[in-house]
Specification:
Layout lengths: L4 E5 L6 H18 L5 E5 L5 H8 L5 E5 L16 H6 L4 E4 L2 H7 L3 H13 L3 E6 L3 H5 L3 H13 L4 H4 L3 E4 L13 H18 L2 H6 L2 E4 L4 H8 L6 E4 L6 H8 L4
Parallel strand pairs: 1-2, 1-8, 2-3, 3-4, 4-5, 5-6, 6-7, 7-8
Helix pairs in contact: 1-2, 1-12, 5-7, 7-9, 11-12
Bound molecules: 1,3-dihydroxyacetonephosphate.
Length: 254
C-alpha cells in the first residue's frame, strides 16, 4: 500500500534557531493534533539536519529529509554532500531534481538517474521531482515532457527499486507563484504518470508509488488536491515555513 506523505521543503530559508523553532512547533502540533497516518517529512538545509534530527527524536510520524546530494560516495568534491553523510545525519529521504536545481544548477535527467541509483544503494528514499514550465503547458506538450523526465531518471530501475521512489509532480508555473494547478489538472497528470509506469512495469508496481503534488499548496486548497485518487500528498514550499499552515496541510488527510 502506498503511503500518504506531506513533505516540507524549506529551500534556503531559516537560520538554525529559526529552523529549530519551526521544527519544534510542527513536531508538537503534528503529535497533538493529527489523526491520520500520513508521513510528515521536514526538509531543512543540510547544515540543520543534525540539529533538527535531535528534535524529532523518536517521533513515529515525523521524518527528516535533505534537499539534494552528490552522486559519489565520497571524494574531492568541495562543497558537496554524499548520501551516506545524509543517512548518518538522520535523513531518510532526499529531494532530487527539484526544478530549482534543474534551472539554476543545470541538473539533467541523466545526472538524476545516477543520483537516484546511488541514493537507493545507500537506503535513502529519493523524492524525484518532475514538472513542466508554463510555455510547455501552453503548447500542450506537458505530458510528453514529464513522461521523458520520468523515463530518463527512473526507467533504468528494477521493479523492486522503483517502488522505493517517491515522485513529486511540481509544475514549474505553480511553484511560489500562488497559482495552484487545479485538482483536476493534478489528478490528470498524476494518473498519466502512474499509467506510464504501469505500461513500463505493471499495475501493481505503479499502484505502490506515492506521487505527491507540489506548487502553491496551502491549507485552503490541500484537502481538494489530496482527495484526488492519484494524489498521495504534497511537497510544500512556502507554507512549510509556517508551522500552523504546514500542520493544517497535514490535517487535510484527517
Ligand atoms: P511552493 O509551495 O512555495 O509553491 O513551493 C513548492 C515547491 O517547490 C516545493 O518543493
Amino acid at each position: 500500500m502506498r503511503k500518504n506523505i506531506v513533505a516540507g521543503n524549506w529551500k534556503m530559508n531559516c537560520t538554525l534557531p529559526e529552523g529549530k523553532k519551526l521544527a519544534s512547533e510542527v513536531i508538537h502540533m503534528v503529535e497533538d493534533e493529527v489523526k491520520n497516518d500520513a508521513q510528515v517529512i521536514l526538509i531543512p538545509p543540510f547544515i540543520h539536519l543534525t540539529g533538527i534530527h535531535s528534535l524529532i527524536g523518536s517521533s513515529n510520524k515525523v521524518l527528516l529529509g535533505a534537499q539534494n546530494c552528490h552522486q559519489s560516495q565520497s571524494g574531492a568534491f568541495t562543497g558537496e554532500v554524499s548520501a551516506a553523510m545524509l543517512v548518518s545525519s538522520g535523513a531518510t529521504h532526499v529531494i532530487l531534481g527539484h526544478s530549482e536545481r534543474r534551472e539554476y544548477f543545470g541538473e539533467t535527467d541523466e545526472l538524476l538517474a545516477e543520483k537516484i541509483k546511488f541514493t537507493l544503494e545507500n537506503n535513502l528514499t529519493p523524492i524525484f521531482c518532475c514538472g513542466e514550465k508554463l510555455e510547455v503547458r501552453e503548447a500542450n506538450d506537458h505530458e510528453r515532457l514529464v513522461s521523458l523526465q520520468v523515463e530518463k531518471a527512473l526507467f533504468n530501475l528494477s521493479s523492486e527499486d522503483i517502488i522505493k521512489v517517491v515522485i513529486a509532480y511540481e509544475p514549474v508555473w505553480a511553484i511560489g507563484t500562488g497559482v495552484t494547478a487545479s485538482a483536476e489538472q493534478a489528478q490528470e497528470m498524476h494518473a498519466f504518470i502512474r499509467n506510464h509506469i504501469a505500461l513500463k512495469y505493471d499495475q501493481e508496481v505503479a499502484a505502490e508509488i506515492s506521487i505527491l503534488y507540489g506548487g502553491s499548496v496551502k491549507p485552503e486548497n490541500a484537502k481538494e488536491i489530496f482527495s484526488q485518487p492519484d494524489v498521495d500528498g504534497g511537497l510544500i514550499g512556502g507554507a512549510s515555513l509556517k508551522s500552523r499552515d504546514f500542520t493544517n496541510i497535514v490535517k487535510a488527510f484527517d
